[in-house]
Specification:
alpha/beta; 6-stranded antiparallel beta sheet; 5-stranded mixed β-barrel; 11 helices; 32 strands; 34% strand; globular
Length: 483
């Protein structure tokens, strides 16, 4: 039974599912259609042993801002991560996949890679595993395999794969004729009717050595900078940071443009077990399963006399009520609300552009700021004060620090905190508080086995996140902690 290494691509700009998905916390980390996040679901379906498949620990390509979220979410579902390669900046899929191939071939010259985005929905995991098995014989013949989704409708938001023949009932791989860019509505309808076109899922199966050979042949300008970035990579707290100077020399390009559209040894495995890349709120609405009136509600949301609509509250203190709505998507969070016609789902990214232009934090910043030790969110911000809720994981700690412009009051509302203020260390339990004077050197830790939550009240002339001096970073849950 051959070993398959899942290579999970975990980047994203967080624009199409705004306001729930944002640059600082893109959609793969959010529970959209299930209790698990899309990233967790992706990792889970590519783990363990199934039929003829035996998956190794995943190799994850992600950005520095997401590295601790990746490890935390994998740990929550009991998956021990393999390598986590940190991209200094997003350079699209070609450099990322080439870097992963170089890393894996050093460990196993015959390594098999299954490359998958981290933000797709595949409900029928067994059928997907069967499709992967169909691709194994093709890669043994030196093929580069991509997976094509049988269209369910004439979609204009996806690229297509044109096959040399219509797929038969066996599900075996078919040779690729050409890639087709995202079509207009009329062309999409023609392709669906033809039967020889599949949606391009952006999922690939190949041997590492074969894709390296393809990059060398078809994308030679990428080989030197990416190879240098891998060779010069530095291990940092269990992560592998690709060399930033070399990485910036790599072209920002997709694997389709760099290699796949030029290669002559491609095969396509057809898949009709259900799939979505959740590329818009209309896709979330479809995957969530509308009721008999075509309505989907989520969280603290209520629909009255509504039709064909999505009404969603992602705030634990905000009720959303729709009355007489038709073909509307309404998504509410603590700091932003989106209301739009369902047919304008692909225009949601225009909202992000407009908010960026006016300098609104909501364009890119998620209300919760995730850190190695946990997360915090601002509850109230005033001219000379700020109130935060801070969640610290069991066994985690913030850095030893002080502030120039503010003092702080900490009130523990869940768990127990070990608090250092200058030379004094004390335990602060639920309903107890502690005062941190301006300039005091301090730290908070969670020594317990349950999460610790406290309310922090900051007062002073300036309460920005950059008013901080760090004296010492400590190790938290096996990783470095930053305050």
């Amino acid at each position: 039974m051959p070993l398959i290494t899942p290579v999970i691509l975990c980047g994203g700009s967080g624009t199409r599912l705004w306001p729930l998905s944002r640059k600082s916390y893109p959609k793969q980390f959010v529970p959209l259609v299930d209790e698990q996040t899309l990233f967790q679901a992706s990792a889970k379906r590519l783990s363990g042993t199934s039929g003829k498949l035996d998956f190794t620990a995943p190799t994850v390509l992600t950005g520095s801002d997401f590295r601790f979220i990746v490890t935390e979410q994998l740990s929550a579902i009991g998956i021990d991560p393999g390598a986590i390669l940190i991209e200094p900046e997003g350079r699209n899929t070609a450099p990322a996949i080439f870097a992963a191939a170089l890393y894996l071939v050093e460990k196993d010259p015959e390594a098999i890679m299954l490359v998958a985005p981290s933000d797709h929905v595949v409900p029928d995991v067994a059928a997907f595993h069967t499709a992967i098995e169909k691709g194994l014989s093709a890669i043994e013949a030196g093929k580069l395999v991509t997976f094509g989704i049988k269209p369910t409708h004439a979609e204009t938001a996806y690229g297509y794969l044109e096959l040399t023949a219509e797929p038969d009932a066996s599900g075996s791989a078919v040779d690729l004729k050409q890639f087709v860019e995202k079509p207009d509505a009329d062309r999409a309808a023609e392709m669906v009717a033809a039967g020889t076109f599949l949606w391009n899922a952006g999922i690939f199966l190949f041997k590492a050595k074969d894709i390296i050979a393809a990059f060398t042949k078809y994308a030679p300008t990428l080989t030197a900078p990416v190879t240098e970035a891998v060779d010069m990579a530095q291990v940092d707290l269990g992560f592998l940071r690709l060399d930033p100077e070399a990485w910036t020399k790599a072209e920002d390009i997709s694997i389709d443009y760099a290699v796949m559209e030029k290669a002559d040894n491609l095969a396509v495995v057809p898949f009709d077990g259900g799939w979505s890349d959740l590329g818009g709120w209309d896709a979330v609405w479809r995957e969530a399963g509308p009721d008999e009136n075509g309505v989907v509600t989520s969280g603290d949301a209520t629909a009255i006399d509504c039709k064909d609509s999505l009404i969603r509250s992602d705030s634990d203190r905000l009720e959303v009520v729709g009355i007489g709505l038709e073909n509307i998507m309404a998504i509410a969070m603590n700091d932003a609300v989106l209301v739009a016609d369902m047919s304008r789902a692909q225009d949601v990214k225009k909202a992000v552009t407009a908010l960026k232009a006016k300098g609104a934090d909501q364009a890119t910043q998620f209300p919760k700021d995730h850190r190695p030790w946990g997360w915090f969110e601002s509850l109230v911000v005033g001219g000379r004060f700020q109130v935060k809720r801070i969640h610290v994981h069991p066994g985690a700690a913030l850095s030893l620090q002080s502030h120039f412009h503010r003092s702080e009051h900490w009130i523990v509302v869940e768990g127990t905190a070990r608090v250092t203020v200058d030379d004094e260390v004390q335990l602060v339990t639920e309903n107890q508080s502690v005062y941190i004077p301006l300039g005091a050197v301090h730290r908070m830790e969670n020594p317990g086995k349950v999460p610790m939550v406290l309310i922090e009240v900051q007062t002073g002339s300036y309460v920005g996140e950059d008013d901080i001096i760090r004296y010492e970073d400590v190790y938290s849950r096996g990783q470095g902690a930053k305050g």
